[in-house]
Amino acid sequence: MLLLNKLAVFVVGLLPLLFFCYRILADQLGPDAGKELVLYTGAWAIRFLLITLAVSTVRRLSGKSALIRYRRMLGLYCWFYATLHLLAIMTYLLGWSWSVFLEEFSERPYMALGIMAWSLLVPLGVTSNRWFQRRMGKKWKTLHKSIYVIAVLACAHVIWIVRSDYGEALLYSALLLLLFSERFYRWAKHKSPAARG
Amino acid sequence: MIIRKAADIASSEITSEQVYLRRREFIGGALIAGAGMALSPSGMAAQQLPRLNYKPVARDADTGFYTPEPATPYADIKRYNNFYEFGTGKGDPAKYAESLSVDPWSLTVEGEVARPGVYPLEDVLAKLDLEERIYRLRCVEAWSMVVPWVGVSLADLIKQFQPTSKAKYVQFETLYRPQEMRGQRSRSATINWPYREGLRIDEATHPLAFMAVGLYGRELPRQNGAPLRLVVPWKYGFKSIKSIVSIRFMETMPQTTWVDINASEYGFYANVNPAVDHPRWSQKSERRLPSSLLSPNRMRTEPFNGYGEQVAGLYTGMDLRRLY
Questions:
Q1: pTM for the complete prediction?
Q2: Which positions in chain B touch A170 (Cβ < 8 Å)?
């Protein structure tokens, strides 16, 4: 049953990519397909990041602790779409020119934030398996807390690129704020009896 | 039978090789579309826009009126637009602009001008001959197209209102009609409607400055700024304001929308300039549309979008790095 459920999550994670392939075949991408791929993969990277963070929140609120089993795969999908996003930017916006890449990195803060967020995802993805989990012990948890930093970087990256309509960028930030406040509330509640004692 | 000279054949009428090679698909597609139109009442919306009578452009690149570069296909020009009045997505204008009623349309002319007034659009155009221009269009977002416009020279259009010697600038304004323009109802947009743009009077009366009423030999589609839009090919696309309802002649530099939103990123002049990057992205190159996943079609951006020979003289002595 668990295997079947995991397979289902795996397929769901692939759906955005499959839908994009369908749009390629149906000639629905429009005349600026490269830019379309950049925006699409970026949007799904941040959506999977929020979904991953939401797993723990929903698990705590619903008491269904088994949900944790699907978190790793969702987190890996965030990394997967973020990597596609970076590759698409390199191919369609920067033309794989390293001089342009360095210039963009040093002169455009939103670009630097995005690359930093992606770089921080790399160690999380690499250490996401059981072998590392066991080997790193307590340090593993500390390392994976960096997802909060990544989430803030990603949201800032999205807000920074807005030209005139903040709708979608604000929605992501609001969701992140909600997920953060649940954690803060739990932390404060956990702390206060101890402080009294 | 009339045998037309080559120069009389509008480029929009010449079938590109790509289209020619796919002619069977088109014929097949047309048959299916025809059958569909006969069957469904929504077929009305899919009907082609009326053809216009106009003078085809002379194939002379020196004037800047014509470029031999391949034109962006009609379908792409119609489905990829920045027209925030209908939403910020590139496909939003094509999806939602149908709700705009463009007839009747009037133009308010005011300010430093001998003949101010509210003119029906057909009166404004009555004494002017339509002509074709094939221009490059470079968006500030680093994509570009080649567009066969139909319209009138802006200088000719302006002349009939007799601007006074005090008219140093021209300001244009887009229609404000939130009930038909859903983007104007958005609460998260930072634009203070109506959309406004402006030119210096010598820019506005330059031969390249153009007022379009048509595209590919037909009436302008709504998503492209029907019924009247500006085309200033040496400036970033946002200067080429759409669905214009007002022209105001002014003594001082007018307020414009993008300068209002973010003056450090968008200037009044907004001349295409690869040497001045947008603070958030490079302006050194552009994606010439259509660009696909397999052929991104990236190319270098030229100063004044390649019209330097014609317009650089307008800016002699100005520091264009500062006055971007």
A1: 0.82
A2: 188
